[in-house]
Design goal:
This protein has a domain at 15-44. Helices cover 8% and strands 49% of the residues. It is built from 2 helices and 29 strands. The strands form 7 sheets. The chain has a 5-stranded antiparallel sheet with strand order 22-23-24-25-29, with no helix packed on it. Strands 1-28-27-26 form a 4-stranded antiparallel sheet, with no helix packed on it. A hairpin with a 5-residue loop joins strand 2 and strand 3 (71-76). Mean pLDDT is 86; it is low at 1-50.
């Protein structure tokens, strides 16, 4: 299932093969055995390098946490699967014909929420039992393709490409409310302190709303271009909302206080965001670079390459490591604790 991004396999040891034709038959046979042993060792004993991109079966647009720290959900194309972070292999693979998957999430009982577009025209939202592949409930003709998803307590909240945000009961799929909170495509959603959620859109607007009713609580319009990612730090006091944008900034908000606290300027437009701690985030920019940002100081501390030409999605995978996808079929794990390039002037 996995292969190098370059499409080339690891080079096979060639030394004994070149020399063996000049040897007597018995010695030639011994060299061939030694060569075969070295080939087997190369493929089975050598661990995959953590920062080496590898190829998976379908394009990955989004990641989602699971109940196990050893697994993540990956979603994109027509597929959702569970990624084993130790073996870097996919299991519990669901393929949905006629559905373009945009987002996924897990419920506390382990079932998967899958959202996207049905026949490229309607919105799709369903709850699946991954072990059997059976859908417990499905909405296959929502008014517009679903582009974002978040779980907020007993409801799942989705945003679509027309700017509407809607809520459904997680366990039954019953519609709860729908509201036109945006005028453009909803790029991301995140659950905050109950009952607050935040949504963001294509033109840079962030809306705080009550996930029980859909009523708008506040909105922020400081971003000058589309918001690419949202994240929440709920353990800090006060709780924090983080956002990245194509305007080349990463911003820190205090949602309960309804205000922007500070922002850090990036050298290129931001494409993805992952929260490392209440203080630190890692942001991917359009050139494929990763930037570790201290949001307390609003400074880019260090940068390092992602090994990808473009980063579509990021997700922390423990310690100082993040998983990255280029939105196509390539994934890589980056160790942020490795040697970094210091940002001049910081």
């Amino acid at each position: 299932m996995l292969e190098a991004v370059t499409g080339r396999r690891r080079p096979l040891p060639a030394g004994p093969v070149v020399a063996c034709d000049r040897l007597r038959p018995t010695r030639r046979a011994a060299y061939r055995v030694a060569w075969l042993v070295s080939v087997v060792w190369t493929w089975t004993a050598c661990p995959l390098q953590a920062d080496s991109p590898w190829r998976v079966e379908f394009p990955v647009l989004a990641f989602a946490s699971t109940q196990s720290p050893a697994h993540l959900l990956v979603a994109g194309g027509h597929d959702v699967a569970r990624l084993n972070l130790k073996s870097l292999e996919l299991d519990q693979h669901l393929s949905l014909q006629d559905v373009r998957v945009a987002r996924c999430a897990t419920l506390p009982d382990g079932r998967w929420l899958i959202a996207g577009a049905q026949d490229l025209e309607y919105g799709f939202l369903a709850l699946y039992e991954p072990s059997s592949g059976r859908a417990d409930w499905t909405h296959a003709e929502l008014p517009a393709p679903v582009t974002s998803l978040a779980v907020a307590g007993e409801v799942c909240v989705v945003g679509d490409d027309q700017g509407s945000v809607s809520a459904f009961a997680c366990t039954t799929g019953e519609p709860v409310w729908s509201a036109p909170l945006h005028s453009k495509l909803v790029t991301d959603l995140v659950a905050l302190e109950e009952p607050l959620c935040a949504s963001a859109d294509w033109i840079g607007k962030i809306v705080l709303f009550d996930c029980r009713s859909g009523s708008e609580v506040a909105n922020f319009q400081q971003h000058r271009d589309r918001v690419t990612s949202l994240a929440a730090a709920l353990s800090s006091q006060p709780s924090r909302l983080l956002s990245t944008s194509r305007d080349a900034t990463v911003r820190l908000w205090y949602p309960t206080q309804r205000r922007l606290v500070r922002f850090a300027q990036l050298p290129e437009p931001a494409t993805a965001l992952a929260k490392l701690s209440d203080r630190e985030v890692v942001v991917a920019t359009r050139d494929g670079q990763l930037h570790v940002v201290d949001m307390n100081a609003a400074k880019v501390q260090t940068k390092l390459p992602s090994q990808l030409d473009y980063v579509q999605a990021l997700h922390p995978v423990g310690g100082q490591r993040v998983l990255a996808s280029d939105g196509l079929r390539h994934l890589t794990v980056i160790d942020l604790g490795a040697e970094r390039t210091a940002v001049p002037g910081e």
